[in-house]
Structure formats: structure tokens, C-alpha cells
Amino acid sequence: MMMMMMMKVMMMVTVMVSEGSIIEQTCKETPDFNLCVSLLNSDPRGSSADTSGLALILIDKIKGLTTKTLNEINGLYKKRPELKRALDECSRRYKTILNADVPEAIEAISKGVPKFGEDGVIDAGVEASVCEGGFKGKSPLTSLTKSMQKISNVTRAIVRMLL
Amino acid sequence: MADPNQETHGPRRRRPFKGLLAVSFGLLFIAFYVALIATHDGSRSNDEGIDETETITSRARLAGVSEKRNDGLWKLSGDRNTPAFDWNNSMLSWQRTAFHFQPEQNWMNDPNGPLFYKGWYHFFYQYNPNAAVWGDIVWGHAVSRDLIHWVHLPIAMVADQWYDSNGVWTGSATFLPDGSIVMLYTGSTDKAVQVQNLAYPEDPNDPLLLKWVKFPGNPVLVPPPGILPKDFRDPTTAWKTSEGKWRITIGSKLNKTGISLVYDTIDFKTYEKLDTLLHRVPNTGMWECVDFYPVSKTAGNGLDTSVNGPAVKHIVKASMDDTRFDHYAVGTYFDSNGTWIPDDPTIDVGMSASLRYDYGKFYASKSFYDQNKGRRVLWSWIGESDSEASDVQKGWSSLQGIPRTVVLDTKTGKNLVQWPVEEIKSLRLSSKQFDLEVGPGSVVPVDVGSAAQLDIEAEFEINKESLEKILGNASVVAEAEEFSCEKSGGSTVRGALGPFGFSVLATESLSEQTPVYFYVAKGTDSELKTFFCTDTSRSSVANDVVKPIYGSIVPVLKGEKLTMRILVDHSIVEAFGQGGRTCITSRVYPTTAIYGAAKLFLFNNALDATVTASFTVWQMNSAFIHPYSDEAVRALSRT
């Protein structure tokens, strides 16, 4: 009986260690291992996802970050009215991520034509950069921009694994 | 084994102790086991190191592509003082083309099922009726009498069956001997499996082929064993085998090896998969939009897809998912087992050095045999190089290239030659002819009036003296082996014998410009090599567009002058070197070199050589592509 229990524990450990390592092995091939692992581990689907699934989790993170940034932008209109023009541009850019890039990427990856997913993910980074540039060096959104760029880079690396 | 600490109680007391020992031993064992797995993973990655050199090269190639795509864009984040560009509707609406095929709005990608039937050229395409990005794909449709003047028609096929509810994707048409049409296309099923479906015109007497019927027995092909459900798409036009069956090929991949599967059929409803592949090339990734067709070794006309024989070579082309490049190779087809081998395996389909139809933005191309004029015509999807926010704002995305004839280059025997279809000349309005000698380091304005819709045909000759001086001078370093359009710095970098050419869509002050040019360089064998490039790096001051330098070496045979043709049509520039031996399509988004401010310049940036340019510039009319109406169709049918 002790043998049985030991076998069960060993199997569990094997499964745990090798599942953890799917995320780790995937994340090793991305430009930001730590970010990649923390994002994927923070999602309950992460431990049982295949590469497509991992990509979709990250696209969800992009979506979440976009919504968060849009809220931040909305809040800034009152606090920093002098930034209205740049905020308008940012609002437009982040809405593009939400309404165009994210749905495109989700559909493309789910249907097995990942190149369109790659386009959407790259564009998310572009839109964030363009928004940032509109503040001419004095952006109140820099840390959110940097997050989007980093997540976009990591997600792109994973999407490329599906090509 | 006796433990001095053991209480001398009965067996009941001994069991818990043994249990404790067993558990700790077990835990130790497990810890050891975990350590074993961890190091096994480590050693597994070392095993993969055997493939490392191959992986590194292909990864480097891919990284090279991604860097190229990203470089211009990530500069945004680096330089916080460059303001984001403010696109206004005037700039964006200028981008729409005058004579390239595009739907009235929204997203388009791959060309589908092009064909000629009952007096009309038909063009179908991947279309998103809902947005300016890819998604919800259906088949758009349009017709023309001349491949240039189009009328849009209603959507030909929607995603209304379980076997294509997730997408009515790319396909090709085949003509049966009785003149009827069968269409094979990829459907993405309700479970997102890629399958092949059969469709045909509902009414063969309708020259407009408005309505299509899907075969009730669809799908006719599902992914075979060993092929993943999402790696099976884009069936080709069928050709006849010597046994009288029809044969098609479908691209796919096995791990990272690009392959093309082969199927035979009598009725397009049931198929026999061949054990052999048409071809396979390792490390090229998924092959999309495979195309397979014969070309004449001697004649300049096109050939029906079923033609075979000693006077014929066969082309295998595939669109590489990994790099978004269309590659092709010339080779020999063996009908007995449905296989093909390239003439030159060092430039096999998909290898980085293998030939491309076009060295710019050009993907998912598809050819068809035009039985009306006995030519093979090539369509291609030309995507955008701007941000999706701009696409959403302007309400559309993507163009088709001008249809090109494609034939084997009978002079070299090793490459294809493409040329815009003759009918485009019907758009030529007024013209101006020039014969200019251009000294080293000069830029000459070419006064042609409006410069956003042009057809330019030019011949260049480098001054004989300059050539002899350079070739004879041993101290002039050979640079041809090191040069590449992409990496050698663009048109501002001056060499002994180049660059020289035209700057299109340029402002008066050249603050925005798109040079299309030759760069002639001396090789280590003292022979000259000629490169043909388009430099979009200064095409726009906007920093949310991609601005690469495109191009390639162009074969120039003894006695040939250097020739180029350029079609300028707002945000697209199509350039053809040496009669179409090397072609470059670019997307450009100037912010000030638009409307009346767009100008044309001739330039010679060589250090020493004088160049003579003889050229004609035509103003190009709009093709007036019409939305669907009976009137528009009637108007076209009279032409």
C-alpha cells in the first residue's frame, strides 16, 4: 500500500513538474521569460493549455490591459485637461486594440491561421507606442505603454510558434 | 534493524515507526525522482542542440524578418520626442487607389478562383464584410471585360454551412472539358477543422455567375492522417494526368517541413490521396496558397494547367506562412507519381535564397490560365503597411496587385518574367517623353503635372567611360557580394555606379520620397552585378507605418540596357526591373507628398558615373471600379 501511495505521489509530481515546464519551455522562447511565466501562471487555464491556448490567454491579458488603459485615459481628461489632444489619439489607438486587434487575433488563432493573430498582436504594440509618442516625452501612461509593448512582444513570440 | 530509541512496545508501536521511515524514504525517493526529471528536461534541450544550427539559422532568418518589420515601429518608443503622426481624413482618403482592385470598403486578402467565362473575367477574394481587419471571411466577387475595369458583384459565398461556418477560405477554379466550372475551396468547419469543399455555379447560363451552389456531400476532403486539422488549406486548380484523372495539390506541413499533398479524382467528389508528395522542403514552415503550373520553355504564351511535355517546365510556388513571402522554383514534373523536382535544389521553394515573384509586399498569389488570350495571369494580395488604427479610420485595408502575365524567361531559363497585363495601357492618358543625361550626384525634377497616378517606362545607360574606368580600376573595391537592397542603407548611400532611378511621390523639397533605382556594383570576379531596389524609408514622415527597403539582384544579360517600369497609384508603387525579371511592390503613406504636392524626380546618386535616361511618363486614368448595379454591368458589357 505504501508502494501504491508512493507511485501515486510520484505520478502527481511527474505531472506537476512536466506541466509547469510546458509554460516554462514555451516562455523560454520568448523575449521576457519572467513576465511570460507570471502571466500564464496567473490564469487557471495556463496549466492545461496547449500553445494556442497559451497565446489566447496572453491575448486576454492584452485585452485586460487595454481596458485598464482606456479607463486610465478617461480619468486623465479631468485631471490633465491640457493633454486632451494626445488623450484623444490614445483613446482612438486603444479602442483599435480592443475592437480590431484583439478580435482578429482571437479568431485567427482559434481557427489556425496564426499569421493574422501575429499582425493583431504586433499592432497592439504599435498602437501603444503611437499613443505614448503623442505626449512628446511627458506621458502619464508610460508604465502602461511599456507593459503593452512587453506583453505584445511575448505574445508575438508564442503566436509565431503556431506558424 | 533495531533502533535503540524504539520503545519496546508491541507490534502496534513498531508499525508507525516503520511507516515514518517508509514515508521519509519515499519522500527522499520522490525528491530524487523530481531531480531526475528536471535534469532530464535539461538534457532533452541539449539533444535538441543537435538541430541547433538549423534552428538558429531559420530563427535568425525569422528574427531578421521580425526585426525588419518592427525596427521602424519600435523607434517610436525609443525616441520619446518624436510626436505621433496625426492622420487626417484628407491624407487617408488620398491613399485609396485609382486603378488597383479593391472593394468599396473593409478588409480583403487572398485572391480566389480567378477565371474567364462567357466574355467576363471573374475575380473572387477573401473578404470581411464587417471590419477593416481580417475576420468573418466570405467570398467577395467582381467582374471585368479586361482585368482593369471592374464592377463589384454581390458576395458569392457566405459561411452558411457547418463545413464553412468558421470561414469560406481560399480556393481555385477548374474548367471541365465541357466548359463547366468546378470550384474547390477550403472551409473552416464549425469545429475549426480545415476541409476542402466543392461548389459550382447555380446557373451556368448566367455569365455573371452571381449564384453558387455548394455540393451537398461536402466536405470532399478532410485532413488526412498525419496532417493536423489546421494545416490543410488552399486547394489548387486541377490538371489532367496521363491516366485521364484530375489531380490537385494542397499545401501543408509536417513539423517545420513545408509540403504539398497530392490527390487524384475523377468527379471532384471522391479523391485518392497519393502516397508521394508533390514536393517538400525542410525548415520552410507551412505552405499556404500553393500554385502549380506549366510554362513553355520556348514560347511567350501561357499554358493551360494540364499541358505537359518536353517543351514545358513546371513551376511550384508556395506562400510561406513564416515569412509572408511568396517563393517559386522552376523544375520538372513527373506525372507517373505526381512528384516534382527543382532544377536548382540550392534555391528550392521557400529557402531564403529562392526566387520570389516580388521582393516587396506581395502574398497569397494565385495564377490562372486565361483561355481568352492564351496567357497565364497572376493575382496577388497586397496588404497594408500602416497601423490598424489607420485602416479602421479610413475604413478599408488591402489591395490586389495589377494582374500580371507570367512566363518563363526564355533568355535565362531559370526564372519567371512578369509584366502588367496589356490592358492597363487603356488607362494611359497624356504622355511626355524625356532624354536626359544625369551627372553624378544630381536630382532632376520631372515635370509631368500630377504625379500620383503614373506609368513610367525607362531605359538607363551608364556612360561607357565611367564603366570602363570603374571596371579597369583595381582599387575600386568589389562590393556586389556584400550589397543588398535591404541592408545597404538605401538610396542615399552612394556607390561608384549607383544608385540611380526615379523618386516617386516626392515633395518639392524631397522631405518625403520613394526612390526606385538600380544599383550597379562590381563583383569579386570583376563582373558587374545589378540590383533593383525600392527605398520606402523616407516615403513618409509618419512613424506608425512600416518603411522597409525592398529589392533584389536583377539578371542583366550582355548587351541589355537597364530598363524599369513603375506604376504609381497613390499608396501603391509597383516596380518592374529588366522587363519584369525582378518586381517590387511597395505600400507608401506620404503625409505631404499627396495630391498636387506629389512630384516626380529623376536622380543619379553615383559618385562618378554619368547616366543617360530615356523615358516616357503617362498620366493614368482611374479604372472607375463601380459598385454593383445593372447599369454598371451593362456599361461594361458594351466594351
Automatic annotation (TrEMBL), chain A:
Signal listed as a keyword: yes
Signal peptide stretch: 1-20
Keywords from the named record: Disulfide bond, Signal
Residue span, Pectinesterase inhibitor domain: 18-158
Single GO MF descriptor: enzyme inhibitor activity
CDD domains associated with the record: CIF_like
InterPro entries from the UniProt entry: C/VIF1 (IPR034087), PCW_Enzyme_Inhibitor (IPR052421), Pectinesterase_inhib_dom (IPR006501)
Protein family (similarity comment): Belongs to the PMEI family.
PANTHER family the record matches: PECTINESTERASE INHIBITOR-LIKE (PTHR36710), PUTATIVE-RELATED (PTHR36710:SF13)
Name recorded for this polypeptide: Invertase/pectin methylesterase inhibitor domain superfamily
Protein species of origin: Arabidopsis suecica (Swedish thale-cress)
Automatic annotation (TrEMBL), chain B:
Keywords: Glycoprotein, Glycosidase, Hydrolase, Membrane, Transmembrane, Transmembrane helix, Vacuole, Zymogen
Localization (cell): Vacuole lumen
One term under GO cellular component: vacuolar lumen
Membership in a protein family: Belongs to the glycosyl hydrolase 32 family.
Protein name, as recorded: beta-fructofuranosidase
Upper taxonomic lineage: Eukaryota, Viridiplantae, Streptophyta, Embryophyta, Tracheophyta
Pathway: Glycan biosynthesis; sucrose metabolism
InterPro entries reported for this sequence: Beta-fructofuranosidase_N, Fructan_Metab_Enzymes, Glyco_hydro_32, Glyco_hydro_32_AS, Glyco_hydro_32_C, Glyco_hydro_32_N
Pfam families (UniProt xref): Glyco_hydro_32C, Glyco_hydro_32N, INV_N
Protein source organism: Arabidopsis suecica (Swedish thale-cress)
Coiled coil residues, start to end: none
Annotated EC: 3.2.1.26
Segments forming domain Beta-fructofuranosidase N-terminal: 6-92
